Flippase-like domain-containing protein
Amino acid sequence: MKNSLDLKFWGGLAVSVFFMTLLLRKMDVKQLGAAICSADYRFVLLAIACTFFSYFLRAVRWRYLLISEKKIPLSSLYPATIIGYMANNLLPARLGEFIRAYVLAEREGLETPTVFASLVIDRLFDGFTVLLILVLTLFTLHLPQGMATAESALKVGGLVTFLLYLAVLLFLFLLKRRTAGTLSLVERLLKPFPGSLSRRLLPLLGSFVQGIRLSPRPDHIAAMVFSSLLIWAFAVLPVDMILRGFGVQLPMTASMFILVLLVFAVMVPASPGYIGTYHYACYQGLSLFGIPPSTAISIALVVHGTSFFPVVIAGFFHLWGGKVSLDCVRDAGGGS
């Protein structure tokens, strides 16, 4: 496990260095400094507030995802959410998801696989909401002339993502409804691989499917859907706020477009904090609208900074307030 994480870390670091090098080649330090100094940071503060409210909404949705298991107070869900996203910013391989599940399970006396299963459903809600944003963007945003290639790439990316999420959803449905048959199929598919993989994965899938216990109540399902829409509305707003802070006036659909690019960017294996991939995607998205390079890079740095540093600080605060040791967090990540 450790060797695998080391490989992912160094591979991700190489990817980040590559994209940061591409970005640095386009950077004029004086113009960059002038653009950052000229920004209206009142909008940046509003962006940070929107970011934290989106995390609060994530805690609300998580409550409904686990409500069939236990009615959990937001005072437990919100700190675990922040700690998880802090860990995602600081650790490789998105280990924050495991840590988020571990912290809540320990605090509320739940089984960690059950809590982690709820986070898989949580990510599926995110995926389909992002796809909805993508569809709205494709049908409402008019890219500048000469951007047909970028628009086609976005459509292809949207289709691939849709098919991926559809396949995952179908697999989870079959795993829940036809558990024995699906596990048998997985076992056959794993035959070309070392037997240790099958012996480790199949019990995990069996344990995982037992943790999928979505509430059938219509009001609970409606709360999950509505909170998902609000989560991503408050994820778009920080991008729009920061654009306004730099004096850039673009339609809200442009912020939606940039957010979709950022979502795709964080899927690319990179160093912790998505350094490089996140910045380059933001820069490229802004460049499509004719934003000067120095301003685009400045905006990319600030957009990333508002989603990185405040969450890391808040995460350590909740670790301290919840009396959760860093050793436990590290062991939860390493042991998963």
Observations:
- Residues 111 and 326 are 21 Å apart (CA to CA).
